[in-house]
Design goal:
404 residues, binds pyridoxal-5'-phosphate, alpha/beta, 17 strands, Aspartate Aminotransferase, domain 1, Aspartate Aminotransferase, domain 2, seven-stranded mixed β-sheet, four-stranded mixed β-sheet
């Protein structure tokens, strides 16, 4: 029996066939079960911010597992308090911010949805989010996810959620005093790395303040330094009421959090929310060490600079398939001129490059924040080779359409 047979038989059918069987990783590289080496520009979907098997990650997990892994939320632990203080500092909440710990992005957004209900009550039942925005797969997070196809099999959804077009005008038209919260994904990663319109976050802040609604920013994919600031909202100089984080803060360890600013920090009261594993000392120690490493090694600046360098190098690739780049820092969406993203991902796999296609016309690049010149050069050569493979296949297709 092959691993493909095992995977096909034993794993839930909600994911497509697994593309490879990975057995080991180091830095920006992965190795499969046949010893083939890959350059990883997906990094566990923006989660492995320090790459694979980083010494800080390995040492912290080992040391904390041997010290204290989990005690429940009846008790405090030093790593939990250290991470809460760090998240408040890098998010800029000030003294009066508070942190709720979860184990994933969806769970962080569940907490944020409950925060919105606590704020709005029955008088403000409306919760706005945007077409194509992704907030997670659990029922609450799904209810505010702007992809009708994802929600449809699971109707009915939690009431109150509405989806609006991502424009300042549409938001302005939709706002009234019955809105409890507006959820914003600052760069729509799963939708294809789609940037917000100019001035959108500032307008949203102004409108939510005017109508007494919370501004909740989903920084799950954009956070932890990926866009060249700790959090994407910081590029725009706005202060949200809450942000949700996950993915990159754990460096590969599952952890999420809801970080509330003073304006929303007192909404949860005893008994209103909780999680057995949320804030466990193992996960919080790892995330605190990962964020500390990002800070000490200036990886936020590296994300900005490497992002610029990567975009520049992509723009110099001589291929009609590539039409431009979206996103910011090391959250890059390569826009394609033809719907061949899946074919490019498959070709890349053969050439030893791991990338992903959030839709048919976009390649998403979210490498570790630790990458340097060597990885960027290697990426460009592997990516160019993958484009050539697809171009050759397209030429063959065209040729076979011409009558002999
Ligand atoms: C990945 C993601 C989520 C969901 O996080 P999970 O850890 O998969 O539950 C939510 N929002 C955004 C913007 C994401 O990118």
């Amino acid at each position: 029996m092959s691993w493909q047979d095992d995977a096909g038989r034993d794993l839930v059918r909600s994911f497509g066939p697994r593309m490879a069987m990975f057995v080991r990783g180091e830095g920006a590289y992965l190795w499969d079960d046949e010893g083939k080496k890959y350059l990883d520009f997906l990094a566990g979907v923006a989660a492995d911010s320090l790459g694979h098997a980083h010494p800080v990650f390995v040492d912290t997990i080992s040391r904390q597992a041997a010290t204290l892994a989990h005690v429940s939320n009846y008790f405090a632990t030093p790593p939990q308090l250290a991470l809460a203080a760090r998240l408040k500092r890098i998010a800029g909440t000030g003294e009066a911010g508070r942190v709720y710990f979860a184990n994933s992005g969806a769970e962080a957004n569940e907490a944020a949805f409950k925060l919105a209900r606590l704020h709005g009550g029955v008088d403000k039942p409306r919760v706005l989010s945007f077409e194509n925005a992704f907030h997670g797969r659990t029922m609450g997070a799904l209810a505010i996810t702007g992809k009708a196809g994802m929600r449809a099999p699971f109707e009915p959804m939690a009431p109150g959620a509405e989806f609006i077009e991502t424009s300042i005008e549409a938001l302005e038209a939709a706002m009234d005093d019955r809105v409890a919260a507006v959820f914003i994904e600052p760069i729509k990663g799963e939708a294809g790395v789609i940037d917000l319109p100019e001035g959108f976050l500032r307008a949203a802040r102004e409108l939510t303040t005017r109508h007494g609604a919370l501004l909740i920013i989903d920084e799950i994919q954009t956070g932890a330094g990926r866009t060249g600031e700790w959090f994407a909202f910081q590029h725009e100089g706005v202060t949200p009421d809450a942000i949700t984080v996950a993915k990159g803060i754990g460096g590969g360890f599952p952890i999420g959090a809801l970080v509330t600013f003073p304006s929303a920090a007192e909404l949860f009261y005893p008994g209103t929310h909780g999680s057995t594993f949320g804030g466990n000392s193992l996960g919080t120690a790892v995330a605190d060490a990962v964020l500390n490493e990002i800070e000490e090694s200036e990886l936020v600046r590296n994300a900005a600079e490497r992002g610029t360098q990567l975009r520049q190098a992509i723009s110099e690739i001589d291929s009609d398939l590539v039409s431009g780049c979206r996103g910011r820092g090391l959250l890059v969406g390569v826009a394609l001129s033809r719907p061949v993203a899946k074919a490019i991902v498959e070709a890349a796999q053969v050439h030893g490059l791991v990338i992903n296609a959030p839709n048919d016309e976009t390649i998403r690049l979210v490498p570790a924040l630790t990458i340097g010149d060597v990885e960027i050069d290697e990426f460009i050569s592997l990516f160019t080779a993958s484009l050539r493979t697809v171009e050759a296949a397209l030429l063959l297709e065209t040729a076979s359409e011409v009558p002999a």
